[in-house]
Amino acid sequence: MENVSISDQLESIRSLQSTVSKLKNALSQMNQSGANTTLVKKRLQAVSIGLSMLEHVWNQSPHHHGQEELAAARHVINGLLPSIQNSYAKSKAGSPQRTLLERRMRALELAVQAIDDYTS
Question: Domain of life, per the record (predicted)?
Answer without folding.
Answer: Bacteria
